[in-house]
């Protein structure tokens, strides 16, 4: 190849770079240029679905175009996650992922159709809530310490319920059992609609379950709440101590949601949606809406979101190992 030809090729490549960059910038500046679909990998009506729909309305108002929510359920959220993994990386398909699909499932399932680290561009956290430590009204305990004293006197041990094997309430119960060295048996139910009545009836002895699910029962005095698993007191239950205040150190369990896009989505698009979420999360009306649904409206940068999900993986990997849980 002659020196003159090499020079021409280099010159052409040099000219192409600004063109490519300007094209990418234009794509990001015009985003979204078509309707956006947010896939929720869980059923309609649940916390993740309701909070995602509220956020979609705000993003549509702020960024334009139509933002729709599609429920793609199955396999603990894995089906919806796989659909987003395989979507075109143009920012027009987003997944409303959760603690389960990003930080737990990979340790629960023998086979996974996606890699939560390698297959996605992380955008922002969007909501978080905590669990409550609840017991039946018939239980004599008024504090977590009193519950532990009571549980250790039970010759056959105690039981705790959850909405199913591998759910955060199940794993939280296993974590408590292991840390406190008590004899406790997990009773899985088909869902919260079955596990909550069982607790009220005293068929199970305790639950460490989602605050949004149990808030109606707490407010109507149908169960006793002894503590919350957040790092500070919850706005709608200011009189209830945290687990740390109740004497159980390092027992912070939050459920959370985050937006992810297919790996390869342009960084400018990712950052544009992340910035919009940060602004929306500061809106007092949004904060009130989310809190009414039992959650806090939150946000984070893409890098913070990815680092947070990784820290959560470290914690839940150990919990699952101790619990000995495995899904097919």
General description of the model:
The longest helix is centred in the N-terminal third of the chain and has 27 residues, at 3-29. It is globular and about 70 Å long. Helix 6 packs across helix 11 (302-323). The mean pLDDT is 91. The protein has two domains: 27-128 and 256-321, 3-Layer(aba) Sandwich (D-Maltodextrin-Binding Protein, domain 2); 130-228, Periplasmic binding protein-like II (D-Maltodextrin-Binding Protein, domain 2), CATH 3.40.190.10. The strands form two sheets. Strands 1, 2, 3, 4, 7, 8, 9 and 10 form an eight-stranded mixed sheet that branches. Strands 5-6 form a two-stranded parallel sheet. The chain is 45% helix and 20% strand. The chain is α/β, with parallel strands linked by helices and 328 residues long. The N and C termini lie far apart (58 Å). It has helices spanning 3-29, 47-63, 78-85, 99-108, 144-152, 168-180, 192-200, 211-219, 267-281, 284-292, 302-323; strands spanning 36-40, 67-71, 93-98, 120-136, 158-162, 184-188, 207-210, 223-228, 254-262, 296-297.
Q: What count of structural domains?
A: 2
Query: Uncertain segments of ≥5 residues (pLDDT<50)?
Result: none
Oligomerization:
single chain
CATH superfamily of the largest domain: Bordetella uptake gene, domain 1
Task: Give the CA-based shape.
Answer: globular
The CATH architecture classification of the largest domain is 3-Layer(aba) Sandwich
Kindly state the number of beta strands: 10
Radius of gyration, in Å, reads 23 Å
């Amino acid at each position: 190849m002659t020196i003159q030809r090499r020079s021409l090729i280099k010159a052409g490549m040099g000219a192409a770079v600004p063109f490519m960059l300007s094209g990418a910038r234009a794509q990001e500046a015009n985003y979204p240029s078509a309707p956006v679909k947010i896939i929720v990998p869980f059923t309609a009506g649940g916390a993740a679905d309701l909070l995602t729909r509220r956020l979609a309305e705000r993003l549509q108002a702020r960024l334009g175009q139509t933002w729709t929510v599609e429920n793609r359920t199955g396999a603990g959220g894995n089906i919806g996650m796989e659909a987003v993994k395989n979507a075109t990386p143009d920012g027009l398909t987003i997944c409303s992922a959760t603690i389960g699909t990003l930080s737990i499932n990979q340790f629960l399932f023998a086979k996974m159709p996606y890699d939560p680290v390698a297959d996605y561009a992380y955008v922002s956290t969007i909501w978080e809530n905590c669990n409550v430590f609840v017991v039946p009204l018939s239980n004599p305990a008024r504090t977590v310490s009193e519950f532990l004293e009571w549980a250790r006197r039970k010759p056959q041990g105690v039981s705790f319920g959850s909405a199913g094997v591998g759910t955060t309430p199940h794993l939280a119960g296993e974590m408590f059992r292991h840390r406190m060295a008590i004899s406790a048996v997990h009773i899985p139910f088909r869902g919260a609609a079955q596990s909550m009545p069982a607790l009220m009836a005293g068929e199970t002895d305790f639950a460490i379950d989602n605050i949004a699910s149990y808030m109606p029962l707490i407010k109507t005095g149908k169960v006793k709440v002894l503590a919350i698993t957040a790092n500070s007191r919850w706005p709608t239950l200011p009189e209830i101590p945290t687990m740390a205040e109740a004497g159980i150190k390092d027992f912070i369990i939050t459920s959370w949601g985050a937006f992810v896009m297919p790996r390869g989505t342009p960084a400018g698009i990712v950052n544009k949606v992340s910035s919009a979420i940060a602004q929306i999360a500061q809106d007092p009306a949004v904060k009130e809406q989310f809190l009414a649904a039992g959650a806090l409206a939150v946000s984070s940068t893409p890098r913070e979101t990815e680092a947070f999900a990784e820290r959560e993986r470290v914690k839940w990997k150990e919990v699952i190992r101790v619990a000995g849980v495995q899904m097919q």
